[in-house]
Write a structure and sequence with these properties.
two-stranded parallel ribbon; single chain
Length: about 350
């Protein structure tokens, strides 16, 4: 079977499966529309630690512990880990998962990191290099604000275009499919979804310099990846139950629809955004919605994959988005490029 289709889409010969997943969040996320779906909601945003960065590391640790518990597996069962976060030199990851003592690939794709991690995990498995791979990411409102914007003590006013960085961590066990197994054995495995194809994104820069408008920075990249995926696969938007972006928020959502219309595609009926789903615009002061690595990760783990596992949805295009923002480049007057990775997730197949 041809493993590359079109310019850049990867088609998996033996579709790797999401065997199990977990979602761990902070209190604000627990108060949102998806609150009851998360595996763990911490009322203490410090997660019992004395520093924000340590709290984020603890979120990753707890997400890994939870997904292993749900899968009835040990860390030693994981061939390797693909993981990352928003902080400099991905320190939330390096301090959060070191104790699991597994080969680790550190990733940085900004808020698109969960897509990058899942894609590389699937490539690793489909290539025969592993049987079980752990993919995870995290973000924390306070640690992200301190690094990219202002210390919380400053009390700056946030514009309506700003999004709220999600405090949380999502972890996924991506496994080799039991292609030759009996139907009874496949039922016992109870995997949640199949990863059938993926389109890695390109860096897209429209020259946006507003660090408080991540949706505008990322929407062009989301448009580019969605358009290229559909073109590569000779598909239409209506071939999917939903096309789900990571954290464009309300501002980025509108921009994306306009950009897709300019390319001759209408995705308004299929489009959803994790940043819109995770918070309640009417009751929570998150302005344009949610963002951060954990935004799409915990939404994927708590809502998207379960709808595929139940058969309510058959096929979705999951497109986590990232704003490649650096405090250094931003302070030097550079723009904020974007990137988006697309993963096709399908309901468990026989």
């Amino acid at each position: 079977m041809k493993k590359k289709q079109g310019n850049s889409t990867i088609v998996f010969e033996n579709a790797p499966v999401i065997y199990e997943m977990s979602s761990v969040t902070g209190p604000k996320e627990g108060e949102g529309p998806l609150g009851k779906l998360f595996d763990e909601v911490w009322e203490d945003p410090m997660i019992g630690k004395s520093k924000w960065e340590e709290a984020e590391s603890e979120l990753q640790k707890k997400a890994v512990e939870k997904v292993l518990e749900k899968a009835v597996m040990n860390a030693s069962d994981m061939d390797c880990i693909f993981a990352g976060d928003l902080l400099g030199q991905i320190i939330a990851t390096s301090f959060g998962i070191a104790s699991f003592n597994r080969p680790t690939f550190g990733l940085y794709g900004a808020c698109s990191t969960v897509g990058e991690a899942l894609m590389l995990a699937a490539v690793h498995i489909d290539g025969g290099f592993a049987q079980n791979v752990l993919a995870l990411t995290s973000s924390h409102f306070a640690s992200a604000e301190r690094q990219f914007r202002f210390p919380l003590e400053y009390g700056n006013q946030r514009p309506l275009s700003a999004t709220w960085t999600v405090t949380g961590s999502g972890a996924f066990i991506v496994s080799k499919p039991m292609c030759a197994a009996s139907e009874k054995m496949r039922e016992q495995l109870k995997h949640k979804a199949r990863i059938t194809s993926a389109t890695p994104g390109k860096i897209v820069d429209y020259g946006v310099r507003d660090s408080m408008n991540m949706g505008a920075c990322m929407a062009p990249a989301a448009c580019d990846t969605i358009y290229n995926h559909l073109k590569d696969m000779h598909e239409k938007p209506e071939d999917y139950d939903h096309i789900i972006t990571g954290d464009l928020g309300y501002v980025g959502h509108d921009i994306l629809l306009d950009l897709m219309q300019q390319r001759g595609m209408d995705i308004s009926k299929q489009h959803m955004d994790c940043g819109i789903e995770i918070f309640d615009r009417e009751t929570q002061d998150t302005h344009s919605g949610g963002s951060g690595c954990a935004c799409s990760a915990v939404t994927l783990a708590s809502m998207i994959v379960p709808k595929l596992a139940s058969g309510e949805w058959k096929k979705v295009l999951f497109v986590p988005t990232g704003a490649l923002l650096s405090p250094i480049s931003f302070n030097e007057g550079k723009s904020v490029p974007g990137i988006a990775h697309a993963i096709v997730l399908e309901a468990p197949g026989k």
